[in-house]
Design goal:
Elements: H1 3-13, H2 17-30, H3 34-47, H4 50-63, H5 68-80, H6 84-97, H7 102-114, H8 118-131, H9 136-155, H10 159-172, H11 177-189, H12 193-206, H13 211-223, H14 227-236, H15 253-263, H16 267-280, H17 285-297, H18 301-314, H19 319-331, H20 335-348, H21 353-365, H22 370-383, H23 388-400, H24 404-418, H25 422-435, H26 438-450, H27 456-468, H28 472-482, H29 489-501, H30 505-518, H31 523-535, H32 539-552, H33 558-570, H34 574-587, H35 592-604, H36 608-622
Amino acid sequence: MNKKIQEAVSFGKKRNYRKAVEILLEVIGKEDIPEAYLYLGRSYYALGHYALSIRYLRMFLEKEPDSAIGHFFMGRSYMVSGLVKNAVPHLKLSLKFYPESAHARGFLGLALMKLRRFESALKYLGEAVEISPGNRRVFEIYLNCLLISAIRKFNLGELLLARDMFVFYTGYSEDKVIPYVYLGMLERQLGNLDEAMDYYNKAIALSPDDELLLLRRALLLYQTGHKEEAESELRKLSIEGYTDINDIDNKKEERFLSIKYFNQKDYKEAIFFGREALKKNGKDLDMHLIMAESYRVMNQFTFAKNHYLRAFEIDRSRIEILYGYILLLWQTEEYEEMLKELYKLSQINPDDPITEYYTALVYCKLGYDSSVTINALQEQIRLNPKDPFLFRFLGEEYLNSGLESLAEKWFVNAEKLLGPTYELLVDFIETYKKTGEDNKLLKAYDNFFSAGYFDMRMLKDYILLLYKKKKFKRVIRESERALGYTKSIKITRILANSYRLTGDFNNAVILYRSLLRDDPENTIYLKALIYCKEKNGEIDKSIELLESALRFRKKPESSLFLILGVLLYRSGNLEKAAALFRENISKFPQDWRSYKNLGMLYKEQGLEDFAERFLTEAEKRKK
């Protein structure tokens, strides 16, 4: 291992990662050593600079694509950056190249769990536990995944497998209510009422104030013949609808529980009991509505739509079904269908203000002519003078009509009431892009990213604007972030130029070298690389690099020979520099710069006649 890299690793072990980064950047600036990129990526990861970590790990993997550790750290960096999908292929490759790794399995399992691929996650986490049984952190993640998988199996009706999973979970985590509740429900469905009672008792011991749990136990007591005890339990509860023990047999328990859980905003439980109630009575309109609303709130729109449609089949006249369905169509952006339903609502209730309100918004979404949309929105604002959503929609209609100053006014009004929402921040950006007000546009971009939002297209546009305004330090900050999420030659070039223009020649060298590797005939990259290496105090290496490039180039330009001649001159090799300028004159006789450089060199050597001749020729050819 390179001594400098060893020194950086030593600082890393002491948790002095900033010093490690400093050394590794110096190493990479002078030598293209793959190992240095790996340690640099790991050091940036330790410092919490995940975008830079990803960038340098990517550069390492371009050189060492079969590195298990490189893919592992790339996967980790993507995960902490929130790019879990990007992490999965790298973690799988890490396992491919090092199958015994418990760490890679653990992180892959966690990534799959975050992506809700629970069965695959459970497989990898289980393998990680087998390889490294003492790793408590991995085991806890495994247990969490096991619990989620057990609940999913229960909901799918795979009761025996779910029971085994819940029982295993409780063997290692006895203080959680959820598994005991599900075991109680499960055993009750299997007809094992005594076992169900035991599990409900354990759940209640952990959550003694949960009235719905107590109600479940009371109902189970009644079912198992303990009527007096059940009656006593029920009297202690303040649950509306259960006051007479003799009335229990006539109650629809699942229906009641579904309503109660829905009112408590426990939508998963509301769905479970609603589903059970519908098995007994598939035409229970209220249950379909509860199921539809619960699914809608949980963003499971396909299921929600199905229950709304079933509700319509039962009773088309119930206006609350139509309200809920219209709201669902708004969420799913089915605006044509929504407009049809709004028309139906207007026929049922012509004076309903909600109809006209949403109709105005839908006109905008469907791209109706601005004369229609603006009039409709203005009328709604007259009726709802403090509605920020109407303000924003009106602003957008003005913006689409080319009335940017009016648009800005309404966006400002909306922001006063709503605050800086994602939609409004984007609206301001689009407004100032159209008006060409760069300073306001910069501020709008600042506000967008400061609020924690991320959009790669916007980030690239922001970087281009910053570069145009010569705000190079901010260009560097944002470009470093962008390159952690995407590989962009344009942004890499802008970042390299910004490093160069701010005097960070070492970082500039690293990027120009990378750009040149992808485009070896690019003269601009080569010139920039030579310039930065010279500024970095590496004039001899600059000469060596340029001589090598000229040997292999198909059609080397005159300017490259001139740069080499200047470098030779600056390094003190005057004879070689003079010979190169003379050779360039013979190859490119029209380039006046060769004559001038040779004339200046002769003048410095005291050869006045030669100097005068070439300087005169340079002036003549310059014209």
